[in-house]
Amino acid sequence: MKVIQHTAETLHTALVSNSHDLAQVYSKYTQAERRLLEEGFRSGQPGSLFPPITVHSDSDWIAAHPEEPQDFESFYRDPYRRTPDAHHNTIYIQTIGSFGEVGALTDQYVEWLRDYCQAFFYGLSVKLLPAVPVSETGCSFRVNSNSHNLQIRTGDLLRFLANKKPKDAFCIVGITMIDLYPEDSWNFVFGQASLSMGMGVFSFARYDDNFYSRSYAGRLKKRLQPRQGDYSVFEGYYTPPITSTLLLRSCKTMTHEIGHMFGIRHCQWLNCIMQGSNHLEESDRRPLDFCPICLHKIHVSVGFKIAQRYKALLQWMEEGQSGTSGPVKASASHPATHFPKPTQAFHTSKLWLRRCLDILEKEEL
Description:
This is Archaemetzincin-2. The chain contains 13 helices and ten strands. It has 365 residues and is of the alpha/beta class.
């Protein structure tokens, strides 16, 4: 395992910049907020809130995809980055295809994702568009020759989203439980985006713990060769059970990809939600939130009190939580109109948020 450890001086330059005008931008934070952000300079020390990045194998993102690190200054001065304004300040989420057999639970799951996104991008509005079946997108589809599961084509979905994008949208993201592919020569893709147009589509299908096993329920039993345009093959097609782990992974993917819509590139400074990931094990190692450098980027784009944002995230994790990490089901105490939120997998993040708030609130006293 390799640890990417930057010096405090390097991290200070990446966060604040040596430019006078950007130092003025940084000076607008409260003393408490600066103290929190500068916790990143202690990366690698015992008890640090912001650990360094670790590379576990050559297949990890940083090893496999060398990129130029993006500090705050290069982000801020990027002429192509997109920023919400008074007329484009809403994030829209479009669900595509089934998200489960139980209608009420499906609706609840998507609401959980919307509410999490609302807290994460605190200060922006997040709205759900009416769910659409695969057939409404008019997309091409296939059966993967290796994993024998259904896949839908990302380029067609992006064209569909471009036509659905409301005028007040900062961005529109399509989410689906069906596996994706970008073109015939590719095996699969987790998602695809057009950052300049503010839209993307992402799949949670491979976040099922059993996806890569032969017992995966989404594998078609027969060697079907569905006819293009015959979307009946998607009727009753398998969707993963809604578990705490699936909810956690879905929240990570959605917020990471929307983060790119603001012009934030893959983080190479500290352990961060904006790190790239090549595989599920690497994605699971990522934290749920921004490092100080990427937090500074989203803050200058949206504008919020850091403590208020953390409180909103903590409230989401603590409201309506369940006591089990297994699949969510209706019961006598939780009828089909209300399901407990499975947030057990968020426990580490809850503890982290409380530590951050301790720093912010002690300074305010």
